[in-house]
Amino acid sequence: MSKPLKQIHLAAHFPGVNNTTVWSDPASGSHIDFESFVHFAETAERGKFDFMFLAEGLRLREQGGEIYDLDVVGRPDTFTVLAALAAVTERLGLTGTINSTFNEPYEVARQFASLDHLSDGRAAWNVVTSWDAFTGENFRRGGYLAEDQRYQRAESFLAAAHVLFDSWRGDEIVADKVGGVYLADAAAGSFTHSDAHFDIGGRFNVPRSPQGRPVIFQAGDSDHGREFAAAGADAIFSRHGTLEDGQAFYADVKGRLAKYGRRDDQLLILPAATFVLGDTDAEAADIAHDVRLAQVSPQTAIKFLEQLWNRDLSDHDPDGPLPSVDPVVGENTIARGRASVRMYRDPVATAREWRARAEAEGLSSRELIVEVTGRQNFVGSAQTVAERIDHLVQADASDGFILVPHVTPGGLDPFVDQVVPLLQERGTFRSDYEGTTLRDHLGLSVPAGAVGAASAV
């Protein structure tokens, strides 16, 4: 008996200005004006996507003490944008990245429960940690946590948030017969949670939301991150978008679920994916080449080289060969404030690999950076891209993809207009929404302990 076709999950990531974005393209618009977010969200909803995804940056990235061309001045608050988008969309899920290292469970749980109410059950939380002391300077606690401590705090943070979400059973709101005012019974919202990281107790003041709990995403790729996702996440925002790499990641993470009493279909694997479309595969390849050159300017190439070499290379010729000196090993003085984590496990060995490749292929420094930082997952005609996406999902390399266009906000339009209809014709992507909540779109049930929305009677 043949294996039944899997249904593809599609989502869209609204990127900030970074090396996946061609901000210099004449078609590129604002990354902060609300109309850009509206256009992007409405396009995703027109394409029947599961959700729209917002990343979060708690501080502008710097290198050598200066803001550089991989970031943008102006990054709106995630909750503000998603709450506003809830009013101009009807079915599209709204996913926000919120840090567990520098926030508090009560505040974050309250914000997500509120968003779930405002959107009628379309909220999702991408739980991330931060190793960055540079970012930590923005917060009272400051500093950074080692990897194991970051994930311990994240696990405690999520456990505390679940206690808060579940503190309303769903049947605790009654109507005041006289004044028409809704009142809660004595047990409503009562909670306590105590562990090594949090010791909280009181009353949670947001009633049970439509999904019971928002959908939980996780984006870490370390062993700690994979275990954290297997234990409690609903979906993983992954970087493993090729066949062999994707299949290995898929099997590894899904294989961890059983020990937590979970089934394979209770955790979705959704890699980020870029795309370049053309009328033919050859035309798309030409466009993709131009896009990569625009994404890696000469200045950007130098910044990437400095991250590996850990030394000032501002006088280096990006159109010449790679630096002949070896990287400086030890504390990272270029990626300021990020001394706790190295960008590369063995910088000297990586530099040797880069030099060997550059020599073999006749690549300049910039051309080498273009090759090693390439993120173009799907390049070709609409037919080629649709076939490739379907193949990867059916081959268990993923459950779908979170698409990252290189132009904002209109870069998603060609995919929705050209590729989505072909996936619908193949019978592997919905022609319309069948439910109203994000859990409906993702095929996820309400977790045990979260028994549904509160109702007024």
TrEMBL record:
Q: Which UniProt keywords apply?
A: Flavoprotein, FMN, Monooxygenase, Oxidoreductase
Presence of keyword Glycosyltransferase: no
Residue span, Luciferase-like domain: 25-395
Q: Which SUPFAM superfamilies match?
A: Bacterial luciferase-like (SSF51679)
Q: Name one Pfam family in it.
A: Bac_luciferase
- Family annotation (InterPro entries): Diverse_substr_monoxygenases (IPR051260), Luciferase-like_dom (IPR011251), Luciferase-like_sf (IPR036661), NTA_MOA (IPR016215)
GO molecular function: any one? oxidoreductase activity, acting on paired donors, with incorporation or reduction of molecular oxygen
Q: What is its EC number?
A: 1.14.-.-
NCBIfam families with a match to the protein in the record: FMN_nitrolo
Family the UniProt entry places it in: Belongs to the NtaA/SnaA/DszA monooxygenase family.
Q: What is this protein called?
A: NtaA/DmoA family FMN-dependent monooxygenase
Q: Which organism is it from?
A: Mycobacterium yunnanensis
